[in-house]
Amino acid sequence: MSYTEEMRRSIAKVEATRQRRLDEVYPRVGDEEKRELLENYHPDYNAEAFATLKVGPNAGDRTPRELASLLEGRPRVHPDKVDLSRVDLEADVLVIGGGGAGAPAALLAQENGADVLLVTKLRFGDANTMMAQGGIQAADKPNDSPAIHYLDVMGGGHFKNDPDLVEALVMDAPFVIRWLEEMGCMFDKEPDGTMITGHGGGTSRKRMHSARDYTGAEIMRTLRDEVRSRPIRVLEFHPAIELIKDKQGRVAGAILYSFDRNEIVVARAKAVIITTGGGGRLHYQGFPTTNHYGATADGLVMAYRVGAKLSFIDTMQYHPTGAAYPEQILGQLVTEKVRGLGAQLVNADGEQFVYPLEPRDVEAAAIVRECRRGKGVVTPSGQCGVWLDSPMIEVKRGPGTIEKALPAMVRQFKRFGIDMTKEPILVYPTLHYQNGGISIRPDGSTNVPGLYAAGEVTGGTHGRNRLMGNSLLEITVFGRRAGRAAAEYAAKAEVGELTLDHLREWFDLLGPEAAAEELELAPLLLPDYTRHERTDEVLGLE
Amino acid sequence: MADVEAPSTEMVEITIFGQRYQVPASLTVLKAIEYAGYRLVHGVGCRSGFCGACGTVYRIEGQYRLHYALACQKVVEPGMVLAQIPVYPAQRPDYKLSELSATDGQNPILEVYPEIETCFGCNTCTKSCPQELDVMGYVSALLRGDLAEAADLSFDCIMCGLCVSRCPTELAPPNMAILGRRLYARDLVPRAPHLTQRLKEIEEGVFDEEIAKLKAMSEDELRKLYAEREIEK
Ligand SMILES: Cc1cc2nc3c(=O)[nH]c(=O)nc-3n(C[C@H](O)[C@H](O)[C@H](O)COP(=O)(O)OP(=O)(O)OC[C@H]3O[C@@H](n4cnc5c(N)ncnc54)[C@H](O)[C@@H]3O)c2cc1C
Ligand code: SF4
Ligand code: SF4
Ligand code: FES
Hints:
Largest interface: A-B, 101 and 86 residues
Order of helices and strands of chain B: EEHEEEHHHHHHHHH
Distance between the termini of chain B: 39 Å
Radius of gyration of chain A: 23 Å
Distance between the termini of chain A: 31 Å
Shape of chain A: globular
Helix content of chain B: 25-40%
Low-confidence stretches of chain B: 1-8
Mean pLDDT of chain A: 94
Largest sheet of chain A: 8 strands, mixed
Mean pLDDT of chain B: 94
Oligomer: heterodimer
Number of helices of chain A: 18
Bound molecules: flavin-adenine dinucleotide, iron/sulfur cluster, FE2/S2 (inorganic) cluster
Number of strands of chain A: 23
């Protein structure tokens, strides 16, 4: 699986320019050039790939076609077919989603006196959080401050972010790092305890905290272990498919679906926190994705149907450096830390074409441009990409640096016969993050009483573009906030008679197509990668 | 595009859960299972080698040896006979981290997992680890109470459970390891001093005024500040 002859010829050019590029700093883009780059080359600006929503709280807004057809899709259960008088499970606070936002939400709700039920689609921890490699931001070094962090977040988000959410994010940041430290999360540190921090795209200070290149996994497994140590019920393989309301219009539980028993489960709760993460598995515009198998935007669909307002659903983040080769790992993430450590992006001729640490949308657009103007490297399967010159890291920082800082990445490429400490790797943008989602207030509440949300499923914190390290931060900050607020709300709330009238209204809004089963079933729950080959061929019986 | 690849012309025959299938030779085991027509719910998670959901055991037809791999990371081989082990029953007693200590002279791992003493150093766990970790090494470090070494050696454990399935004395190395790492990080690594300082400053309201000022700024003012901001080298 190692490189082809043709790719090797291009690698030779990369090697030939490496020494010269050591001190070459490619200029950052100016405002004008940036606008032009994005408008011409970023997938968010590809008008054909978008649809305008016709029904629901965001009617009139633009969103990728794939998401629009789910937001306006057909519910999986008909309200008349569910018996709400038979409540199977009960809790004060129901957390939907067992990822990095769900776990802190459950912990804080439990600490604040709530009886908590956490339900999740696959296993607890099968989540985007588990895959985050690069790090988590927090302004805790002497040369940094929450104010400087604030400015970076706003700049990254094109100044469209919700200022109250950004304030909560940057001011809580040092507290969640301490919280994680005290729970036994193993951050990279100097012997005296000083955090080893680095840069990420769009940071003006080195505030990226890491746990080797398993930062998200380390946070997730620590949080999961803590949840398992507490009286919190966890139900796996039971995705939520619909929210339940009470007659007073408050969210009061959810309908779950048991994959294995093929059964509907009614869960009643005084408050519900949605932490279902993103939607990379919808493969917008046919892009490959870095996301986990269950990232299908279910939370947006469920929240939309009970009247929750969404924001920034017209912007998705394409990570500039997804693996473009080998084919087996197409779309998988090559963490930004590789560039943070000093690797440059270069084209087929071994020349730089963009400053390596611009915000992600700019980097992604620049790579697309390079490929469109014929300066990319094309793989045997026809995928175009550019080189990420990883060996440069060792030239700059000494041999062994990569193995120590990026063991997961080295292992991944080694499995396919590529030694990234000696050879560059081929990259192309990959669908990575859902910038927008359910609109929340700083305490995680939404415009619908009883409904809270936290994490990648929300919108506002990152404006139009999220910076690396601010989302592991967001899930812990807002997971905690939502957990606390939902528990406080639940302590006072009463649940009235349960109803699915909102679904009846939804069917009416959708019109005859829904009844005629012409619309897509939503939420999607899982992508379908089966090939439906002819049985005789797959079985080899022909 | 997406995750579905154009099948290469070269096909191989493999056996999945007892049934033979023809699949393209370039696929990972995970994609081959899907190619054969399985819509997976168990045995799949991140699809990138991070979550440990896809542990797989296989042998090659005609050979007796068993091999272990992550379905999402392993490319199929001709004659593979495979089954996934999505979960494996692994011991994890109830404990509260707050009631355990790594600094009171006792080995907290022995308190929670006394059975760790039955490890007789057969190294089967190491041979079955798809992450190529020195599993026996970290188990013996845990047994000795050397949490620093155990934390370092076990750090890349994705808790797939394959080693648990193999251990002849029925130990659960990944569960012991996470307890060891949490105690190590909490008790034996100093808290970040600059973080303590920053928490104090925030609590004293040192940044409140500056943040309030930024929040009140117009987009143009913010843009200007952002463009002029100093970037740490
Ligand atoms: C490869 C990769 C690398 C990344 N690197 C970084 C990084 O270095 N730094 C950073 O800050 N961010 C990074 N991110 C982003 C960050 O990891 C995620 O945005 C964040 O972890 C999302 O957390 P979450 O809890 O909101 O969602 P998730 O962690 O995805 O959790 C969502 C959970 O909800 C469950 N769920 C989904 N639908 C349902 C349903 N219908 N019912 C019940 N449960 C459901 C899912 O199965 C999952 O368990 C990365 C993301 C990826 C994919
Ligand atoms: S140590 Fe065990 S559980 Fe951890 S990755 Fe290796 S085999 Fe899997
Ligand atoms: S397999 Fe079990 S007994 Fe053998 S070395 Fe590993 S932990 Fe010890
Ligand atoms: S699916 Fe997560 S490790 Fe293979």
